Amino acid sequence: MGAPITLYVDSQFLSPYAMSVYVALTEKQLPFEVRPIDLNAGEQRMQPYQCRALTARVPALTHDDFNLTESSVIAEYLEEVFPAPKHAALYPSGVRERARARQLQAWLRSDLAPLRQERPTETVFYGTPGQPLSDAAHAASAKLIQVASYLIGVGQTTLFEDWCIADLDLAVMLKRLALDDLPDPLRAYVDAQWQRPSVQKWLEHNAAARD
Fold first, then answer.
1. What does the DSSP 8-state code read for residue 155?
2. How confident is the model over 28-60, as pLDDT tens digits?
3. H helical segments located in 120-183
4. How far apart (Å, rounded) are the C-alpha atoms in residues 84 and 61?
5. In the chain, what's the furthest Cα-to-Cα distance?
6. Cα 10 from Cα 16, distance rounded (Å)
7. Closest Cα to residue 199, out of 47, 11, 24?
């Protein structure tokens, strides 16, 4: 069975970053335990969680006696510890494609803050409509669509030849605009990502957390 793996996520299953790691583990078909953390109660700042999560954030991964936070770093760790072909690849095999995937992940996590604020993950998972976008959020939306349209063509369901974890991260960000004007090729791309079995499993957790 190997060393045990535990994934700590927000108790509402709303974090796109926790979702990213959950999908990564599921795609690699690794057995793992999910432990919810109540962010509203400040559990992320309490012991014993804080001693496991150096940055006191979710998601956090415990693999045997090793603890790690930051979703993209966790994905890279999983890729190295559980590599292809024994396990599904999370990143492209080509050096340039892999660099592009990591570039996209880093950009999605560091830019577009107004869009994340005005189209929070309740929009992604609950379909909650937001207010009309502010000028700043509209500019972020236009930037996102420009970048995504450059990378995703008509009929294209993955960024590269095969699926990678950056596909999920991009789809989640685009999903924030599902109730806004999203070009048809990008909407079809998001829909294709949403149908992956690993994504559907996360959505089941999300639905159960609402009940």
1. T
2. 999 999 999 988 888 777 788 877 778 888 899
3. 121-126, 135-151, 165-175
4. 20
5. 52
6. 10
7. 24
